[in-house]
Amino acid sequence: MIREGHSTQGTLLIAEFWDVDFKILNNKFLLEKVSKKAVEEARCKPLKVFSHKFEPQGVSVVCFLEESHLAVHTYPEHGYCCLVVYTCGQIAKPKKAFEVFQKLFKTKSIKLKEKKLGRKIYKD
Whole-model pTM? Predict the structure, then answer.
């Protein structure tokens, strides 16, 4: 069945955070909680959340969303985190998810890329 009005258009947001506190980046429960808040702030609907704590350090959190996904991968030993948010449609606000993590990490060392996807390119 084809759903009427379902757009292929979406937004891919990739954020890199550096110089983040080791304890924050290594806290699975905190990162899962913040990921859920980020999903809510981005006006997305969570379907399933998975998280994993690596040994000796590091955490990954993946939120499957009705609109697509949010993924967080940390490298506490380097003070580094990568956040990837992909949302389909026009309602979700992935930059709001980024802002939730920006507030938590309290760092100025950030690289942010945003790309609009799913727009057909026509050639004459």
Answer: 0.89
Residue from 60, 73, 78, 82 carrying the catalytic annotation: 73
Report pLDDT digits (tens) over 9-65: 889 999 999 999 999 999 999 999 999 999 999 999 999 999 999 999 999 999 999
Structural domains in the chain? 10-112 (3.60.90.10)
- Specify the DSSP class assigned to residue 81: E
**Of the listed 68, 69, 82, 109, which one is catalytic?**
68
Active site residue 6: no
82 annotated active-site: no
Contact 26, 107 (CB under 8 A): no
Whole-number Å distance between alpha carbons of 28 and 48? 16
